[in-house]
Specification:
The structure is a single chain. The protein has a single domain, classed as F1FO ATP Synthase (Up-down Bundle). It is rod-shaped and about 70 Å long. By secondary structure, it is mainly α.
Length: about 90
């Protein structure tokens, strides 16, 4: 029983690490969105209002992706549903 539980917990930690990588890469994506928007506004100042609106929409979507990755990591570490299923099947 302990071997199976250890396997589930180690898999959960690996899954949480992958989910947290999402947050790290979200930062790079947001930096690219902001840099491209600033460059576009510098090239076409008359379209800066539309570019800014689109930039904020893109930043919001990217941030949401990072928050979901953090949420999945927290669930996998602290409220792992697989542990309860495994205990109910074995016990």
């Amino acid at each position: 029983m302990e071997q199976g539980l250890a396997t589930i917990m180690s898999a959960a930690h690996i899954a949480a690490a992958f989910a947290l990588f999402n947050g790290a890469f979200t930062t790079f994506g947001q930096a690219r969105i902001a840099a491209q928007a600033i460059e576009s506004m510098a090239r076409q100042p008359e379209a800066s209002s539309n570019i800014r609106t689109t930039m904020f929409l893109g930043l919001a979507l990217a941030e949401t992706s990072g928050i979901y990755g953090l949420l999945i990591a927290i669930i996998m570490l602290f409220a792992n549903p697989l542990v309860n299923i495994y205990i109910s099947l074995m016990g």
